Structure prediction request, 506 residues.
Amino acid sequence: MSVGDAGSGNLLVEGDNLLALKALLPYYAGQVKCIYIDPPYNTGNEGWIYNDNVNSPEICKWLGKVVGGEMEDLSRHDKWLCMIYPRLRLLKEFLKEDGVIFVSVDENEHRYLALLMDEIFGPENHIETLIWKKSYGGGSKSKHIVNLHEYIVCFAKRIKEIPAIELPPSEKVLKYYKFTDSKLATRGSFRLQPLATTSMDERPNLRYPIPWKDEEIWPEKQWQWSRERTMKALEEDELVIRKHGGKWTVSYKQYLKDTEGQERSSKAYSIIEGIYTQQGTNEIKEMFGDGKAFSFPKPSGLIRHLLQIATKEDSLVLDSFAGSGTTGHAVLQLNKQDGGNRRFILVEMDSNICRNVTAERLRRVSQGYERPDGIKVEGLGGGVRFCRLGTACFDEYGRINAEVTFSDLARHIFFTETGEPIPKQAKDSNPLIGIYKGTAVYLLYNGILKDKQPDGGNVLTQATLNILPKHDGPKVIYGTACRFSPVRLKRENIVFKQIPYEIRVR
Prediction:
């Protein structure tokens, strides 16, 4: 099942996120610019079960129960850490060297998560712990202090690789840029800022007169700019000089854009305000008719803000606790906003949620939908490819799983070889599994040529080559062995890769 442009590079995976991350890692290791996850908060009310693969019967019994509330289950924090630890270790491997990860959490696990992130990413790579003010107020049910916030822990893979973080100007700031002049086309609108300063840092070179209408205007203390810069601004009509109550005031035009046409940026702050939980619920209501489809979804504005902090216009974004699909929604919104081509990978383990909420939400926001009040909402464009986690191709030792079919292995090989999904379902009667940019990819496996003998159809020999589907161009052939010399392979325009050792797998 796919939505919109399935070739847009967006992916939604249904399946356990630990297994899904292991399956995706060979394809996306070191490619993800930004990870956002919103794991269970471990409040004791979620009813989650930690069921990762372990061998000890005692541990299996301990883990395979619904995690209880505080004092009901004295090991609940241990279970949460056991759940999140291997996932964070894998997620780190997905990040680019300048990649960033955000983890939403509340006070239940924040102090434990912070120590775990230090261990996995290194304390030197901690960028900030953001405070998200999630509620307007209220709190009549609170006995002690009204809690209005959650945390978003932010780490870099290598903080030395992270450049200065700059955001587009906020709406609060933009409203002050309300004046225009002849430079509107190149510099945008402007606001007025006082040129004089009351700084206690006395600098005599900043105290000088500005000539104006046969007068000299002196600052009470000093000017912000040097004489040379001020005179140039005066000459280029970038100062506004007025008289109020018998005193001259000098303001400079602070343009929205610099001389290169780049918009003025703003800083990211550690406290996020103006985006509330209720907005996320309202988004679900608007798309599904009520808020019952998914409880407490994050608002897309929150994730969009984080993406502005950590991504570029062509970045890959990963969310392995996808829930209602807010991260995918935010990526499509931001692409629409700035013309970017960001892509996302989402993983959701609950089949009902994945198909009926996550996938459906992405379909509606990409293609458009009608609100309950009859107002039509225009689609954001893009698309997503939907897939379900199947049998693992390889065991823990890197060997091919005996249960893997020819078509399953063909899909894996074609994707790792080309970076693209296989063009059509591979048939167990055809060793040519696909052609990409003029190169044919062949797979000799599992008796594809009706001969399972060690020196038979899974081995590249002259007899095997004679019956392979013809291709006039480069060929990549996967098989168990090769009887051709390097010189012969070069002459035949063949790259041979041995199974399983040269199949890309982590």
